[in-house]
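Entry type: protein chain
Record version: 2
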Amino acid sequence: MSAVLSASARALLAVASTMLFITGVAEAQNTSSVSGPTVSAGDREVEYRLGWVPGTDGRDADFRHRFDFGLSLSERTAFKVFANFDDNPGGDFSFGNLNAEYLIELSPEDAPFWQTGIRFDGRLSDGSNPDRLGFNWLNQWKLPARLRARAHFIATHEIGSNAADTVDFELRSSLIWKASDDYSLSLLSFTDLGNTDDFGAEGRGHQIGPAIDGSFGNGIGWTLGTLFGVTDRAADHDIRFWISKSF
């Protein structure tokens, strides 16, 4: 095994060990990603995502399941639909929401440094939870040493009988190192920026954590990671596992 692959294996073991031995109480499971702005013609993918909060201090473990289907519509546009389900031991396996996303890549396909795009989102929620519309500005920078950086700015507005009047804001970011042709290591950050009545990150929810992703071959990919809450209003701990199939 090469030195690069050995380093990747050690990183995977470190992430797995962290997730197994550090636990906390969280309010929800984060199955979101830091999305990139690029589109490849002909792409189609199905994906399963699992979010897990280990039980502690008398609380049961909590799980969230997400099922995705995405495809490119052209060389510049893509569409994705996905559903979230909540699974709490001792309770029911319940539908959470149904989501649709429409991505438009704006930068030239051969952009040497900065790539950018916009995305429009819609969410239909179950029960009394409000539905939601969203606008996203997605950015990616190609850096030396096989590094990429992403910044994903999000504005959402609730609709429906129980909707808030404000627009909510969020910033997601990541630094990705392509360790080899088969493995990448990432550091991800999710920051709540408040809303139009009270904008700012101070005292808001903020999570940060590592992830590793790779390929089993035949179009099958996987991601393993964890997020830690770094503010009191953030979920304390999220363990995340994803598996995808491209075709």
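Comment: The domain at 3-246 is CATH 2.40.160.40 (Porin).
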